[in-house]
Every structure is written in structure tokens, then in C-alpha cells.
Write a structure and sequence with these properties.
Elements (H helix, E strand, L loop, with lengths): L2 H9 L16 H17 L2 E5 L5 E5 L4 H6 L3 E6 L14 E3 L7 E4 L4 E3 L15 E3 L8 H19 L8 E6 L13 H4 L3 E7 L4 E3 L4 E10 L15 H11 L15 E9 L3 E10 L2 H22 L4 E9 L3 H4 L4 H12 L5 E2 L7 H7 L6 E3 L12 E2 H17 L1
Parallel strand pairs: 3-8, 3-9, 9-16, 10-15
Antiparallel strand pairs: 1-2, 2-8, 4-7, 5-6, 7-17, 10-16, 11-13, 11-14, 12-13
Helix pairs in contact: 1-4, 4-11, 9-11
Amino acid sequence: MNTLDRFLKYVMMDTQSDETTELTPSTPGQMKLAHVLEGELKEMGMQDVTVSEYGYVMATLPATNAELEAKKPVVGFIAHMDTSPDFSGVHVKPRIVEKYDGGDIVLNEALNIVLKPSESPELLHYVGQDIIVTDGTTLLGADDKAGVAEIMGAMQYLIEHPEVEHGKIRVCFTPDEEIGQGADNFDVAAFGADYAYTMDGGEVGELEFETFNAAAAKITFHGRNVHPGSAKKKMKNSMRLATTFISMIPRYDTPEHTEGYEGFYHLTSMSGSVEKTTLSYIIRDFDRNRFESRKREMQHFVTKINSEYGEGTAEIELYDQYYNMREKIEPVMHIVEQAKRAMENCGITPKIQPVRGGTDGSRLSFMGLPTPNIFAGGVNFHGKYEFLPIQSMNKAQDVIVEICKIC
């Protein structure tokens, strides 16, 4: 089975994760795919193939010979099996647009859903190439089933080409990355790699070893409800207190005003009544000192509310989610240099950029497994306009093989 066929098979399996189930994996479709991958890995000749009770699939490609096993590091490749819960992943119907001509692509004529270069200018990077698209009613699932297929294809290639020398290679396919739980039950010791790469980035050439430092905050405002006809000097409207707090957040320190290495505060939800209102925020910054400063500032705003309206009016719950993996990658920057060289050997210009978000590699790096992120080739993740150029998927597979050769 070639890499394209694998991808088309995987995306038709519903593996959306669901943070409400409190299970691991969070949905049964992920375990189903895990066992499909288990069977395929064994069939192609991989060794030490296991599926944990939590749905983590691990396997080994032994070194070409004992000498290489002794002198080369153990390298890992990781991709996640789940797709985003943000948009339907049920009954995905992928379609291949051959030799894309640069125009609009009608995804669903009946529903008037059209993928347009005017709205997705990245399309024009792939004129003349073959592009996999959706039918406009689901996401595609290239995030991250493209990564899964690419790793599987690379392992099959290496098995079929024993003349390509390499050290010991470990692969792992994880559940629940999209709901932030992909590393929760990852057994780093059992994986046994010296370092790894997640195949979970976007367009060709992307190479990332920096993420945000991340925290979440929940601020609760306690009010006092009184009949509005006799409320003077008695009522304390928690919703108005919440809006006062929101106005304290620097106006331009929000996602819609930031890019590159700029951090932000992001109000993700709000709910309430006169008596009680809750705000949920996420806090992001690449710089650890600025990150800590943002958290202190958030706590300071709560203190200001309490000083004006009474102690206990506002309460904050604040906790860290993950940290910038650059801190753990910099001491072993040769693993980034290897990925760069592998791309260049494949005729690809590396595009090193920060991840304005998180990745399993961030948590894994702090768990003792340094893990930069490499492109998987997809575009417009998490929605009906998601697409994957077939040539990009093939290039990602080539990069995996090249890393195995040069590391």
C-alpha cells in the first residue's frame, strides 16, 4: 500500500477527539485506528509493535546492522491519530483535484461551498500539483493523518530498501493531541528514543522548535442581586465587574492584534448573571519572563477589583499548561540542524518559524524527549476548506527517510 492509499484509508475513519468523555483515548474510533496501524506495522515487518491500554501505538525498525545500532542515536517519529473536534470528521469523502489550475475549486455544488484562492491564497503555491480536498461537509483530517501516513510510508520504504543504512528507529502514533492530552500517557522510557520529531506541521519546509509558554486562567466575579427598583448602593452586578476587568486587559494584547513572537491574552468564554460571572482566558508568550509578567498582571487586575469592590469579589484560578520547548531544544540544536540538512538534501528550503500554539513536542521535550516539529503538508486545518497537496505528503516522507540516513 502506498502513502496516498494509506492516507485516503485513514481519513475515512472517524477519529475526532472529545474532551468531555474523560476517557483515553477519548473516542473509540481512535482505538480502532490504533489497531489498524498495529496490523499494518506488523504486516510490513516492523518489530516490537505494541498498543497500550491508552491507545498509543509504538513500533521499532531495527538498525541496518549491529555496528550502526551501536554508534547511532535512536530516532523517533511521532504523529497523532485524532482529528479536531472543531468540525465534523464523520464520513469524510476525500477527492483528488489533479493538476490544479489555479482557479476556484467547487467542493460542494449543491451547498455552494467553494475553495477559492482569494480566500486561501496558499492554493496558488500548488498550481500544477494534485490536491486532496473535502466535499465541503467535513474536515479532511490531514492534521494529522498525513503525518501518520508519511511515517508509515517512510518505514515501508526503508524496509523495502535495505541498502539505505540507518540506526534504530522508533515510531509512535498518539491519541487526543487535539484536546491537549496527547502526551498525558506517553511512556518516554518505553519509547526509548534519544530524540524525536513530530510530523504535524503545515506547508512544505516548516520546521519548528519554539512554542508559546502557556497558561489558563478562570476569573470568577461574585455579585449581589437586589430588585432593580431598590438597588441603589446595594446591588453588585458581577457582569459589570467582569467587563471592568476585561477593560483592564491591554487592548492590543489579543490574538487579533498579534503575530510572530508577540504574546497575548485571549478571552475564550464568558458566562454569568448579576450574582455570578465567570471569564476564561488563555495567556501566551514565547519569552518566559514576559509570560510570568503576564500572569502577575492578571493577578494584579484581580487585586484591583477586590480593592475597589471588596475582598472576595473576584477570584482567580491560574495554572500553567505547557512551556516553550526551545528551552529544551537549544542544548541539542544538532537535531534541528539535521532536519534542516535533510530538507535541503530533498530540495526543500527550510522555513524555521515559531509555533503560535502548542504541540505534543513541547510537553515531550520537558518530559525528557527533545522533539521539534516538521511539516506534514496540509493547509487550512480544522475546517471544510482543508486540503493536502499529494506532492507535499511525498516530500514529507522523503524528509523522514533522509533524517534516518544522516542522523
